[in-house]
Design goal:
194 residues; mainly alpha; Ferritin; 73% helix
C-alpha cells in the first residue's frame, strides 16, 4: 500500500535540461546524495536505538543506499568522473531540516516525514532522468532507482505510523510537503539531484 503522498509540485523542464547538459556533475552530486542517505538512515539508529520496530528496516535502507552509491561510483569511474574534492552544502536538505520542530518526538516525526518527501522527490527526478537518457545501461539503472526511491518514500511514512496517530502523521506530512515545494521552487536550477 502506498503510504507516501504526491509531491506538491513537479520538477521543472529547466531542471532536467540542466542535468542532461552536464550529466557528469549530476553523477557527482547523485553519488554524494546516496552516501548521505545511507548515513541519514544510520543516524536514526544511533539517535533512536529504543525504536526497535524500525531498526531492521533502517539498516536495510542504509545498506541499499550505500549500494546505490557504489553503483553510481562505478558509473563515474567508467566515465572518468571523480568524486568532488569537497562535498558541497545541500541547501535543499538544509532548508527542509530547518523546518523540523525541536522537541525529541516532534523532531523524530519531522525527520522521518522529510526523509519520505526527499525520497519521493528523488523518485520523481530519477524518472525524469530515465525518460531523458539515451544510453540503455544508464536508462536501466535510473529506472531501477526510480522504483527504489518510491519504495523508500513509503517506508519512512510507515515507520512514523508505528509511533504516531495516522491523522496527525498525514496532517504534518501535508504541511512539510507544501514547505518542500516552496523550498524547491526557491532554489537555483543546477545539475544536481536537489
Amino acid at each position: 500500500m502506498k503510504a507516501s503522498i504526491a509531491l506538491e509540485c513537479s520538477s521543472s523542464p529547466q531542471w532536467i535540461a540542466a542535468v542532461m547538459n552536464d550529466f557528469d556533475a549530476f553523477l557527482q552530486d547523485h553519488a554524494n546524495c546516496e552516501r548521505k542517505a545511507s548515513a541519514m538512515a544510520m543516524s536514526f539508529v544511533a539517535k533512536f536505538p529504543d525504536r526497535v520496530e524500525i531498526i531492521p528496516e533502517l539498516i536495510e535502507t542504509a545498506i541499499e543506499e550505500l549500494e546505490h552509491f557504489q553503483s553510481v561510483y562505478e558509473i563515474m569511474m567508467r566515465r572518468g568522473v571523480l568524486l568532488p574534492a569537497q562535498m558541497g552544502k545541500d541547501d535543499y536538505v538544509q532548508q527542509l531540516v530547518d523546518k523540523c520542530r525541536s522537541g525529541r518526538e516532534e523532531r523524530f516525526l519531522d525527520r522521518l516525514l522529510l526523509a519520505s518527501i526527499v525520497e519521493c522527490r528523488g523518485a520523481e527526478r530519477f524518472k525524469l532522468v530515465y525518460e531523458n537518457l539515451e544510453d540503455n545501461e544508464l536508462k536501466g539503472f535510473y529506472n531501477q532507482l526510480w522504483a527504489s526511491e518510491a519504495k523508500h518514500g513509503n517506508i519512512f511514512v510507515n515507520m512514523a505510523l508505528n509511533y504516531f496517530d495516522k491523522k496527525f502523521v498525514y496532517a504534518r506530512l501535508e504541511e512539510l510537503n507544501l514547505a518542500e515545494a516552496k523550498v524547491l521552487q526557491s532554489l537555483p536550477i543546477r545539475s544536481a539531484l536537489h
